[in-house]
Amino acid sequence: MAGVVEQIRIWATSLKYWEQSALELIVGGKEITENDYQDLVDHCLHDAGLVQIPTAARPKLTFPREVSGNQRPGYRLEKMFNLRNVNALPSGPELSFGEHLTLVYGDNGVGKTGYTRPLANAAFARGDRDVLPNATVAPDPKLVPQVDIEVSRGGSKTVLTWTRGQRCPELAGCYVFDSLSLSAHLTRPNTLSFTPSGLSLLKRLAEVTDQVRARLRRLFDEKDVAHNFSPLFSGKSEVATHIEALGPQTDVKVLDKLATLTQGGTFPHSGVGRCDRTAEVAGGAKANSVSEAGCKGPSRAAVVVGVVRTSARGGRCFGSSNTSP
């Protein structure tokens, strides 16, 4: 569906940089790692004007002409092993899969289905099934059925850990057909849907951007801590008024102007130095009164701007400032 991909290419030019970057990773067929997600979070914050990143440091995006993800080989099952609390099966035996066909045989009740059901739950299968824990031991919520599954792709092997109630995304293309699947296909309605291959890029983009937004929410929740700087600014002044009203709608440019120190004023360099040190302590929520550090007027505003601007991503600052808090 070259036409679909070309239309997505044109549409992508209207997206923000971080979304285009995510789409480029997807089109390139790259496995998106946690480092990739953190880079996307940085780009998203930069697009929103919340962090400073040199524009030159942002790589130029090039939408690949070929959708690499469509040509990537799928995962191949290698073996199942290390069964934990799966029925009454021991944890020692391994089930290795042959290159073409693997036959598992045995008498009734010896545990053949005990291997099939975890695989069906980790991958894809029609029908309702569950993996029960070992009934021969005392019930314990902590004893959850788990299985290690070794898969390979492109000569590289990976071990996945399946846990009851979850699926392994890497096995989404692995279909398990058993007696429960047979019943589901014969007795239930089956919806057939077709999606052009290019449109799968949009579905994957929605999944990746949702993951980025989830990380942003956690980042904001971690830093959603109330600050009270009013005690640092006694009396009535323009600085005190702005500090008392600090919030999401605060005009950062006004704070920059109030926090700017000029040469030849009434603020000795030694006092500014003490303000710098006080700002560092205040960033750890252990600051003493700024007045005790010998700071006056706008110098205190510089301290607060330094504390308020500290980003959640360690050492990065929101916006820009003429001070060095």
Task: Describe the structure concisely.
This protein has helices at residues 2-12, 17-27, 34-47, 112-122, 179-187, 200-222, 238-244, 252-259, 269-282, 298-308, and strands at residues 76-84, 95-96, 146-153, 156-163.
What features would you describe in this structure?
The longest helix has 23 residues, at 200-222. This protein folds into three domains: 2-70 and 196-221, no CATH class; 76-172, Rossmann fold (3-Layer(aba) Sandwich), CATH 3.40.50; 230-308, no CATH class. The relative contact order is 0.11. The chain has helices at 2-12, 17-27, 34-47, 112-122, 179-187, 200-222, 238-244, 252-259, 269-282, 298-308, and strands at 76-84, 95-96, 146-153, 156-163. By secondary structure, the chain is of the alpha+beta class. It is elongated and about 90 Å long.
Helix content: 25-40%
Q: How many E-type strands?
A: 4
Enumerate the strands of the largest sheet in spatial order, edge to edge or round the barrel.
2-1-3-4
Shape assignment: elongated
What class, by secondary structure content? Answer: alpha+beta
CATH domain fold name of the largest domain:
Rossmann fold
CATH architecture of the largest domain: 3-Layer(aba) Sandwich
Q: Which superfamily, in CATH terms, is the homologous superfamily of the largest domain?
A: P-loop containing nucleotide triphosphate hydrolases
Q: Major sheet: size, sense and barrel closure?
A: 4 strands, antiparallel
Distance between the termini: 55 Å
- Report the portion of residues in β strands: 5-15%
Radius of gyration based on Cα positions: 29 Å
List the total number of helices.
Answer: 10
Q: Tell me, what is the CATH class of the largest domain?
A: Alpha Beta
Question: What is the domain tally?
Answer: 3
Give the H and E element order: HHHEEHEEHHHHHH
The average pLDDT value, as a whole number, equals: 76
